[in-house]
Model the fold of this input.
Amino acid sequence: MSRARKTSTPRRFRRTPLLAALAALLLAAAVLGGGVASAGQTGSSAKLKVFGAFATPIEEPWDGVIHAALLRAKNAGEIDYSFADDIGYSGDMERVLRQVAGKNKPDIIIGDAFGNEEAVRRVAKAFPRIAFVFGSGGGPAGPNVSVFDNWIHEPAYLLGVLAGSLTKTNKVGIVAGFPVPEVNRLANAFTAGAHSINKKAVVKVTFINSWFDPATAKEAALAQVGAGVDAIYAERAGVIEAAVQKDVFAFGNMSDQRKIGPRNVVSSAVWNMSPTVEYVIKQVKAGTYTAQDLKDFSMMGKGGASLAPINARAKGGVPARLVAKVNGLRAQIKSGALRVDINEAQPSGSVSVKGKQ
Done:
């Protein structure tokens, strides 16, 4: 189960306070076509009320991508959006969700589950008129729990092609969170991409056993560079800073992270939650929301995953022929002509270091 080992989170960030209770809502619209009636003004032109519930700080890239998509919908005038981050575990998520669902009565609650999987599903069962949309390694649960995950293995493969081509030492690396399926498939896709272009490439994989511990991630990256790695995939925050310090190629994750290291970041595997968010908003507004697996909306084919623009000036220049090759592979993936395998096994030879949970 993806991110299933996410059990606790450092509290170094101030928790965002819950917003005050909103005005009383109208009665739910009738169910259309078997969908779930929302607690709000479904079927009308009124804005939907959406609440984001995040176990970790939104500075953590995974939650940050979801938050960014919801902010875009808010700024476009589609929703009223409030959120709480750094909620944590050990019952805290269930407490917050019950408080928000019972008091604010949002139309949609969206966020990360995984380590809070059971809590989210219990609360959703108690509030069947609210659409719950959560990251999950499990399946949807009727009538109101939809699930999603980030499926950015396709751009991760392209990052591997770039890394395998640019390395001078034939040693490339990835510093990642936990060895869970969601992360393993990125590491394996990156490795496959590197080997597709460079059979001599050795890929070093380090897991820091934390979702958000930039200091440990940076130290793990520095150790890889010390072992000869000169192109490194920053699956977790903190790695790019090490790449900048040691002046090696870096590859970002979740969002375009070029600004962290303008000279060193070549590209990033980008997750875009907007296709998922827009689909759910349309369903709830129409009164046709049903529990489902939203996986396809996070793939390159539907715009949920992409490769950030290639930084042709990284470390003195990326060859134009390499940029053209990667752009060609990207087009093949989007058209379906090239399929990137989903391999969720823990990478062989990977090592783990102890980070903050």
The chain has two domains: 48-150+273-301, 153-271+305-352. The first strand starts at residue 48 and ends at 53. The radius of gyration is 21 Å. The domain at 153-271+305-352 is CATH 3.40.50.2300 (Rossmann fold).
